Amino acid sequence: MSDEVRLVRPEDRSEGHPTPGMHREEAVATGGMWAGHVTTGAGVASGWHHHGEYESTIYVVSGALRMEFGPGGADVLEATAGDFLYVPPHAVHRELNPAEVESTLVVVRAGSGEAVVNVDGPAPAADGGAGPAAG
C-alpha cells in the first residue's frame, strides 16, 4: 500500500470490472478499498452481480438509479441525484437507469477479494415468482 497522497484525474482512471449494461472506471484500488466512476445509459439495465466480501456505497451524481435485489429481485429502491445507497456484501442486485439521460455514479467499496462477481440472477422468491421484468 502506498503512503503517498495521489490525485486521480478522469484520464487516469482505468477500466473497472465489467458487468453488462454499465461502464465502470477504477479510480483507486487498495488491498481493502475500491473507488470508481460508473455510467449507465438511458433506459439500460445492468447484469445481475454482487460484490463478494465488499460492502459498497453508491452516490448518484446525475440521472437516476433503480436498484433491484432480494429474493427473485422483487425488492426495489429508487434513487436520484444527491442520494446514497448502501449495498451489503454478497447482496445480488442489478442497477437500472429509468431516466432519459445517462446516469453517473460514484462508488466506494470496502472489503477484500473479488470486487465484482457477475451471476445469472438472484435466488428465486419463496413463492416461485419470476421477479421484476427487465427494464
Set out the fold topology.
Blueprint: E1 14-15, E2 23-29, E3 33-40, E4 49-50, E5 55-62, E6 64-69, E7 75-80, E8 84-87, E9 93-96, E10 103-110, E11 117-118
Which structural class matches the secondary elements? mainly beta
Roughly what fraction of the amino acids lie in strands?
Answer: 35-45%
Profile the largest sheet: 6 strands, antiparallel
- The amount of helix comes to under 10%
Number of helices: 0
Computed over alpha carbons, the radius of gyration is 15 Å
Please count the beta strands (DSSP E, at least 2 residues each).
Answer: 11
CATH architecture level-2 label of the domain at 26-115: Sandwich
Elements, N to C (H/E): EEEEEEEEEEE
Q: Indicate the CATH class of the domain at 26-115.
A: Mainly Beta
Shape: globular
- Briefly note the CATH topology name of the domain at 26-115: Jelly Rolls
Strand order of the largest sheet: 1-2-3-10-5-8
Uncertain residue segments: 131-135
State the end-to-end CA separation.
40 Å
Mean pLDDT equals: 92
Write out the CATH superfamily name of the domain at 26-115: Jelly Rolls
